[in-house]
Amino acid sequence: EADIYQTPRYLVIGTGKKITLECSQTMGHDKMYWYQQDPGMELHLIHYSYGVNSTEKGDLSSESTVSRIRTEHFPLTLESARPSHTSQYLCASMGSGSYNEQFFGPGTRLTVL
Amino acid sequence: SQQGEEDPQALSIQEGENATMNCSYKTSINNLQWYRQNSGRGLVHLILIRSNEREKHSGRLRVTLDTSKKSSSLLITASRAADTASYFCATDYTGTASKLTFGTGTRLQVTL
Fold first, then answer.
1. Inter-residue contact A18 to A77 (CB < 8 Å)
2. CB B98 to CB A103 under 8 A?
3. What residues of chain A lie within 8 A of the CB of B43, using their CB?
4. Per-residue pLDDT tens over the stretch A48-102
5. β-strand A76-78 against A19-25: which pairing, if any?
6. How many whole angstroms separate alpha carbon A15 and alpha carbon A85?
7. Cβ contact B43–A106 (<8 Å)
8. Contact residues, chain B, for A48 at CB < 8 Å
9. Mean pLDDT throughout A11-31?
10. DSSP H/E element including B101
């Protein structure tokens, strides 16, 4: 079944730890996105990719980094987590059709103590 | 910021009533979309309206777009408790192909 997956769903870690949030999609979409969303607030684009080996920073500055080595996989890494990184991180993908509908994963809720 | 504004920020209605949410944006768009988000989950696409369209329907949803006023509205008719969620508009701005800018969201509560 075509879908988009994120792991872990919840993560509580201490300050200074390195973490990687996983995102995978089985729809063959070229375009993938990472958004940051605080509870009850709007989404902010932090990274996006238009295909393999393509990554761009989004509208909101983020200390995280991303990679796109395979079409289906778009992981996000924080080298040294801080309490200010506490948020929900949403991954999305989009196909190349004329309708720019994005498909979202369930999100990872990150808490940095 | 190109981010859209939505109003109201929160809306509470009873089951069976209609819910209307509004979205305003700032520059020319290719299309405008509405998404729904249940608490703590990802977003689900509801409906897309192109810049050359004025109204679109999908089931109990009706979306209008007024490009002269740079605004859109989402109407949910005969609301149900299961419609309780946050609703976001998202704009695909001209010249920013494949990037969406999301509004601030409207939190809808439908009570029995």
1. yes
2. no
3. 43, 90, 92, 102, 104
4. 999 999 999 998 888 999 999 999 999 999 999 999 999 999 999 998 875 678 9
5. antiparallel
6. 10
7. no
8. 98-99
9. 96
10. strand B101-102
